[in-house]
Amino acid sequence: MRVLVIGSGAREHALLLALARDPGVEALMCAPGNAGIAKVAEQHPVDASSGEAVTALAKEVSADLVVIGPEVPLVLGVADAVRAAGIACFGPSADAARIEGSKAFAKDVMAAAGVRTAHSEIVDNPAELDAALDRFGPNWVVKDDGLAAGKGVVVTTDRDAARDHAAELLETGHPVLLESFLDGPEVSLFCLVDGETVVPLLPAQDHKRVGDGDTGPNTGGMGAYTPLPWLPAETVTAIVDDVVKPVAAELVKRGSGFSGLLYAGLAIGTAGPAVVEFNCRFGDPETQAVLALLETPLGEVLNATATGTLDTVGELQWRDGAAVTVVVAAENYPATPRTGDAIVGSDGDGVLHAGTKLVDGKVVSAGGRVLSVVGVGDDLTAARNDAYAKIETIKLPGSHFRSDIGLSAVEGKITIPS
Ligand code: GLY
Prior knowledge:
Elements: E1 2-7, H1 10-20, E2 27-32, E3 42-43, H2 51-60, E4 65-68, H3 71-75, H4 78-84, E5 88-90, H5 94-101, H6 103-113, E6 120-123, H7 129-134, E7 140-144, E8 154-156, H8 159-171, E9 176-179, E10 186-194, E11 197-200, E12 205-206, E13 209-211, E14 215-218, E15 223-226, H9 233-253, E16 259-269, E17 272-279, H10 286-292, H11 298-306, E18 322-329, E19 351-353, E20 356-359, E21 362-365, E22 369-377, H12 380-391, H13 407-410
Parallel strand pairs: 1-2, 1-4, 2-3, 4-5
Antiparallel strand pairs: 6-9, 7-8, 7-9, 10-11, 10-16, 12-15, 13-14, 15-18, 16-17, 18-22, 19-22, 20-21
Helix pairs in contact: 1-10, 2-4, 5-6, 6-9
The structure holds glycine.
Glycine is lined by residues 150, 206, 221, 279, 283-284, 286.
């Protein structure tokens, strides 16, 4: 099978490395890729948001399967264009991708499916902001009602900070979503979904704040670990049965059946799991950790999902132990990251590239989240040690990373409220 992956982040690098381990995958291509991906896959330039451009490239490289990594092309209908050209594509239609692209659609689907989620209100008129804020908080959860790569979210006990963020979004023409705060630790559960067939991957936890101890602003994700020693297996089963399957069935009922990766972000609170958000694609940086433990050939399951035969795959197989991803971010990320610095140690084992490019044969930083360093081990402590030992070998001026990825879980400090 010849596989073309669309995207340029560490998530796509992780997908490509896992695909490279699948004996059924004979050729790997990526567009547009990055400096690290160039070592695993043939790279091609592409406008990833253009269905026409991606389809033309898929034909040119004789791809049997196109895997679309990021949400923006999915929301814009790139998967529809690829499928319309008769090429198998892993990723939902634009219609189904509204589960991430439109928060109003997602809330409506969840209400119809009987799935617990935060109460929310959309504010698009600045004159209504103060009264709306008074109906929420503390804590206030203020989101950009569109795609914002995780950075449009502010969760705060400070009403002024909530107001400032909402006002800034409104000033730039973005409607604001206010949500009630969901208590309990967060879980990312990725599920392969083909209509009503749902196959879960291992649960993971992201670390969204920039600083140790969950301090500072939200980011696209500073690290993740899997599996979650504090999460009972029956809770994962309950999430699949009571959250993901009803949502998949509701999408089918609406004629917007989902095909691809449905990512449920949940808070496990006093009343059980509640949905924080759905995403229509693999999450970053959880994917880098989750795929490091996958033993089932990835190409086979992505292709089965894309061709409507996921029901033939069965449970996925995993290596024992744990995996941890630690993101190495550029100076001043998540504000305006410094770029253009040479990186030492970027070609190490378990070092996945995100914001990198080749300049005169040297790997230089080219984005906010620059590298994802993945450690694996027999348990979470060993996986953390492996990741942080690998980070020691990397030099990027001004860069920073969190030193506590997975630490609360190791210390037994994560508990589900009862
Ligand atoms: N892990 C957050 C995201 O992928 O959106």
